[in-house]
Design a protein that fits this description.
single chain, five-stranded mixed sheet
């Protein structure tokens, strides 16, 4: 044992090849077990911390909130997501998730309900939305699960929609809330991202009406966020100065901002 410790503390230049290999092997194993132990202790410590929304531990939530603060500070409506030639868009587009789409609804009577305040709700039909200037583009739709694909969407700029219906006071608020007609799925979005020039209220995919499983009759497309924020089948829209509810952040503990 004495010779073993002597070997560890002997300078490498004084050791032969076999001794040097042995020394480096022992040090590597020692560091591995120390780091593995530290990682295990850190994981146990995180698990023991009080949880916040979505069963997320307090320290992790603080990191997510700090990241949001940084990304909010860097956000600019001048930074545009790369657009691609329409020919590069996949067809059919991948379907991912059916939250809020399981409940049947009457497509003939659907209307977007824009809640300006309690007792003051606008009901806007798809035909009315289609009268607004149309925009279409293809971009790389990115899912928080790790996949992405170039997809082609058409609709009206959210910012133009807000102007057309004189929602100036609402646009000045901090957050936008969206929910499906059955209220089973809902997202919250910071207003700056919602008003980004590439955020659209979308009613077309590949120059055709949205399929049912892609959110017919109207969905959100917001390229500056992961796809988890592009809510399908919008039924309700509302506004607030505090964070609006978000399914994946509140229930599952995901990052609220979800920015790219």
């Amino acid at each position: 044992m004495k010779n073993f410790f002597k070997l560890l503390f002997t300078r490498s230049g004084k050791l032969n090849t076999d001794q040097l290999i042995l020394k480096k092997t022992v040090i590597s194993f020692f560091l591995f077990f120390v780091l593995a132990g530290a990682a295990f202790w850190g994981w146990q410590w995180l698990r023991d911390q009080p949880t916040t929304s979505g069963k997320t531990s307090g320290p992790i939530r603080k990191v997510l909130d700090a990241n949001e603060g940084i990304f909010n500070g860097l956000f600019s409506d001048k930074h545009l997501t790369k657009e691609y030639p329409i020919a590069k868009a996949v067809n059919p587009a991948r379907v991912n998730g059916n939250l809020g789409l399981k409940t049947t609804f009457d497509t003939a009577t659907w209307a977007l309900q824009v809640i300006r305040s309690k007792g003051d709700t606008l009901k806007i039909t798809l035909e009315q939305i289609k009268k607004l200037p149309k925009i279409e583009f293809a971009f790389n739709f990115k899912c928080i699960e790790g996949w992405s694909q170039i997809t082609h969407w058409g609709g009206v700029k959210f910012s133009e929609f807000m102007k057309a219906y004189h929602l100036t006071e609402e646009a000045a608020m901090n957050y936008l809330g969206l929910a499906t007609p059955d209220k089973e799925y809902y997202v919250g979005i910071d207003m700056a991202s919602a008003l980004h020039p590439q955020t659209i209220l979308c009613y077309e995919l590949n120059q055709k009406a949205l399929p049912m499983d892609q959110g017919f009759p109207l969905r959100l497309i917001i390229p500056v966020k992961y796809g988890v924020k592009s809510l399908k089948r919008i039924g309700f829209m509302y506004f607030d100065n505090k964070r609006t509810p978000d399914y994946w952040a509140d229930v599952k503990g995901y990052d609220y901002f979800s920015g790219l």
